Amino acid sequence: MKCKRVLSAVMAAALCVSLAACGSTASSSQAASTAESAASSAAAEPAASPETAAGGLRVAGLKGPTTMGLVNLMDSEDGADYSFTMYGAADEIVPLLVKGDLDAAAIPANLAATLYQKTEGAVEVACVNTLGVLYILENGESIQSVADLKGQTIVTTGKGTTPEYVLRYVLTRNGLDPDADVTIEYCSEATEALSQVQAGMANIVMLPQPFVTSALSQVEGLRVALDMNEEWEKVAGSQLVTGVLVVRKDAAEADPDAFAAFLDGYAASVEAANSDLEGTAALCEEYGIVAKAALAQKALPECNIVFETGEQMKTDLTNYFQVLYDADPASVGGALPGDDFYYGV
């Protein structure tokens, strides 16, 4: 019988709640304040010793694609060697990681960069686990390229966060002035933006998965007009990143072979998540990541779950961080991460 030592901080109630981390990012102020307060509180407490941590590597994940990519490892025999904990928000994870109560965590990429700065390089990024999940939807057929957005109104979320920076960057690199050529209306959350489309108040909306899947099933005539991951790659020459796995350097260095074995298991788990949709979806329901397996199975192919390491990881993150830094240095902790931020490179 497989040992399943998974602690769940929050139980999933619905797809859009349980998968909210699919498009989650930390705002500039959230990333900075969360990491700053965590680093300050941790300064007075000694970090836990990686060698004596019970249950092997202690790994935290957010509800959504991050944990969906891990779920096959969690359910495997090898998974019994690790302690997995799921959380509903990144700010629950950060203090534990900073203090050494966790060894590794799957978090938004820009928060990882901020943590690197606030902990003076005590963490490094081991892999990219989720690529871009933003899509522009249209109720109609007029938007076939970014250029077609000129003169249009785009409803979206994430003002002052990475969705805004991504949208403005793609528009600018396609010759459009985000402040003159288009009108961008920001909602407080994706459900609000979706409700405007449902009510016929908006025809063009930028949403993250899984809200895209939900919107397409609810609004007749709505279609995916632009995949922002593809549009980003056209102008940036690299892939758009959403989530990463960070690890405390002391934990990775305490037993390099053990950490490498964990990454091998993680890679196999991601491969299974992308090839065995039905089996992975069933595990997502079993572990409380989503309410129903059918919902998970529908969302899995659209969430861009990956396992990216080495030079490709560094290239994608370096380009991504540069765009965020140019938009707002605080979004990546005030400075770009050094080369020592990238594990194994």
UniProtKB/TrEMBL annotation:
- Domain of life according to the entry: Bacteria
Tagged with keyword Repressor: no
Q: Which GO terms describe its biological process?
A: menaquinone biosynthetic process
Work out whether the entry's keyword set contains Lyase: yes
Q: Which InterPro entries match?
A: Menaquinone_biosynth (IPR003773), UCP027386_ABC_sbc_TM0202 (IPR027024)
What residue stretch is flagged as signal peptide? 1-31
Q: Which Pfam families match?
A: VitK2_biosynth
Q: Which SUPFAM superfamilies match?
A: Periplasmic binding protein-like II
Keywords recorded for this protein, A-Z: Lyase, Menaquinone biosynthesis, Signal
* Record pathway: Quinol/quinone metabolism; menaquinone biosynthesis
* MF GO annotations: lyase activity
Q: What is this protein called?
A: ABC transporter substrate-binding protein
